[in-house]
């Protein structure tokens, strides 16, 4: 997920140029956090799509997972390519909504998938508040 910031130095530099709240984490933190989260996403989403492929989970369960990947991948181009804080804020909100949706959708099929994604939920919740704050401060 390219959501929030990768370790790319241009993106880190751009992030540092925004007016930020005092509680904003340093740019260098985003790369390591996302590395851990991407590992969780790869394993859990891969398991879900595999089980859907095998017909062990209904196909409809794939929708929030697929949308999450889409919105996640859209963040960096919106934030750093278009340099549009408002679109990035809307996008990160959609990432958060799809996390909640996929956790609810998978819960009755396999609770460990939802539980394993709690760090993803926590970080994106924080990132959503941060992005909205940055959007307001830089408007």
Mean pLDDT: 92
How many DSSP-defined strands?
A: 0
| Helix percent band | over 70%
Largest sheet: none
Specify the overall morphology. Answer: elongated
Number of helices: 6
Q: Rg from C-alpha positions?
A: 15 Å
Distance between the termini: 26 Å
- In total, the number of domains comes to 1
Low-confidence stretches: 1-7
Order of helices and strands: HHHHHH
Percent in strands: under 5%
Class computed from helices, strands and strand pairing: mainly alpha
Summarize the structure.
This protein has six helices and no strands.
Structure, explained:
By secondary structure, the protein is mainly α. It has one domain (9-137). Helix content is 73%, strand content 0%. It contains six helices and no strands. It has helices spanning 9-17, 30-53, 62-81, 85-107, 111-116, 118-137. α3 (62-81) packs antiparallel against α4 (85-107). The longest helix is centred in the N-terminal third of the chain and has 24 residues, at 30-53. The protein is elongated. Mean pLDDT is 92; it is low at 1-7.
Descriptive key words:
139 residues; mainly alpha; 73% helix; disordered N terminus
Task: Set out the fold topology.
Layout: H1 9-17, H2 30-53, H3 62-81, H4 85-107, H5 111-116, H6 118-137
Helix pairs in contact: 3-4, 4-6
């Amino acid at each position: 997920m390219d959501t929030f910031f990768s370790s790319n130095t241009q993106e880190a530099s751009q992030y540092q140029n925004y007016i930020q709240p005092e509680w904003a984490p340093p740019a260098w933190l985003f790369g390591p956090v996302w590395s851990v989260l991407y590992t969780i996403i790869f394993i859990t989403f891969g398991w879900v799509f595999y089980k859907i492929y095998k017909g062990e989970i209904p196909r409809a369960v794939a929708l929030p997972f697929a949308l999450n990947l889409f919105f996640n991948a859209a963040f960096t181009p919106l934030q750093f390519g278009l340099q549009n804080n408002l679109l990035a804020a809307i996008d990160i909100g959609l990432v958060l909504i799809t996390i909640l949706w996929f956790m609810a959708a998978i819960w009755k099929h396999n609770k460990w998938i939802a539980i394993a994604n709690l760090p993803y939920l926590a970080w994106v919740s924080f990132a959503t508040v941060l992005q909205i704050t940055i959007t307001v401060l830089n408007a």
